[in-house]
Amino acid sequence: MFRVFGQLSWFFKEEWKRYTIAIILLIIVSFIDLMPARLLGLLVDDFQLGSLTLERGAMYAGILLLITFMSYGLTYIWMSKLFGGALVVERKLRSKFMNHLLRMDVPFYEKRKTGDLMAQGTNDLKAVSMTAGFGILTLVDSVVFMLIILGAMIILVDWKLTLAAVLPLPLIGIMISILGIQIHARFTKAQEAFGSLNGRVLESVAGMRVIRAFRKERQDENKFNSMSEDVYKRNLEVAKIESFFEPVVNIVVALSYVIGLGYGSYLVFAQQITLGQLITFNVYLGMMIWPMFAIGELINIMQRGGASLQRVNQTLSVDQAVKEPKQPVATEDSASILFDQLSFSYPTSELNQLEDLCLEIQSGETIGIVGKTGSGKSTLIKQLLKYYPSGKGVLTVGEQPIGKQTKSQVREKIGYVPQDHILFSKTVRENILFGHSNATDAELDEAIRISAFEQDLDFLPDGLDTLVGENGVSLSGGQKQRISIARALIANPPILILDDSLSAVDAKTEAKIVKMLREVREGQTTIITAHRMSAVEQADQIIVLDEGHKAELGTHKELMANQGWYYEQVQQQTRGMEQEVR
């Protein structure tokens, strides 16, 4: 049960001063809180004996007032230290969690749902935070404060009465052993259900246009209601187990009161204790209610925190699929690329997606990569970006093997425009400057010109300061593509990769962009994957892939002369364009 504290030992070592001060002050306040009950007992005894004077009563009142101010001041300090520590551990774990997500590569995200990761970064870390704050409080109160009260009852009242009154306490221990494991298991399932619900909400929001287009609003609503009901039922199962604690505590407290009053009254009549001591004893019994409840709260918090930390640690324990080299090599300024008999298959696949691929790209060349769907075009690009572990064969970038370079070394040479254009909920300007935050206005204007986005600025309500909305929802597909191209261009990378990034623009705009890229990127390498052959006509080399193999290689003229797959596609697309014109 207390394993969660061991897993957080690194944090307690870092913040040992904070927690030492908080626990010491909490214990001091526990002793101070015993004094009013003792004063009440002495007051009753003085009244019964007739020795209560005005001066003595004023002394009791003064002491009680002093105790109140001391308790208030010290409580403020220990609460700020203890619960401040809970916020610190939440911040540290959240930063650690986010940094881990930023380090992870593509295979990690292929196996995990975004909604579940969000649940871990929010609800689970909040449960861990509760463990480091309220959990420490309940631990001290359920153990130390209870022992202090028991010690006071033994020393200040009577040990026999104390022993009799605490006889029901083992009932709580029995309930802890029975219910603790169930809370852990059920809370884990509840958090998993919440993660799935998060994922469903994300999918619904992102796919709202499709849902409305196919009139699936009610179906999606019913699915959400079903998943929400599942989360409700799983949390209800947790609540049912938690609800067993309070009745047990009430039974234990009631039994303790019955024993205390009954046996205590007998001891008063037997003149073994005074009436004031009995009153003090019963006040102490009342004070034991919270420590008994704290035991139940402690188990609840420990099991919740343990289950949540276990889920978070499982994510944090996942290592990167693409390992960094222990001794990275320095690379040349050259933007040359070499594929030498490269073969690659995805971790979940038994077949090679690239097979004995050979391709040499010199610095300054423009390369076109075409092929039918599933031929390996995007897989080739992912190998260049080190998204997956290197396959068999040789792949060099900047005249050095890519396996001996860090991911940062490789990617700082590359400007990448992916097929799925991700834009942030910021302005057009901020989205473009994401590629180079310190770019000048001239560089920004140049990137916009090359990407042929100038013509669209007049139609945007605030020009470059127009908010694009969630993932560019207010823009067309072509506008999003050209903003993504401008974002990559503004960094002026030695290698620019356009992964089917001209599919949403018209043929005229496409030709304009390709022409400007060849003009301004002289001496730099450009790689264009496309389904429209017109996007690669001007390339220095065009490689045709077929099921991961190099089917054809040459210039546009050479491939047209070969009359292979490339020739057939050009003819077919040309006829299609002619029919559209008609």
UniProtKB/TrEMBL annotation:
Residues 21-304 form the ABC transmembrane type-1 domain. Keywords: ATP-binding, Cell membrane, Membrane, Nucleotide-binding, Transmembrane, Transmembrane helix, Transport. The keyword Transcription does not apply. It is found in: Cell membrane. It is a multi-pass membrane protein. Its main location: membrane. GO terms for cellular component: plasma membrane. It comes from the Bacteria. The chain crosses the membrane at residues 21-40, 60-89, 134-157, 163-181, 248-269, 281-301. The keyword Membrane applies. Residues 337-572 form the ABC transporter domain. InterPro entries: AAA+_ATPase (IPR003593), ABC1_TM_dom (IPR011527), ABC1_TM_sf (IPR036640), ABC_transporter-like_ATP-bd (IPR003439), ABC_transporter-like_CS (IPR017871), P-loop_NTPase (IPR027417), Type_1_exporter (IPR039421). One of its GO terms (molecular function) is ABC-type oligopeptide transporter activity. This is ABC transporter ATP-binding protein. It comes from Alkalicoccobacillus porphyridii.
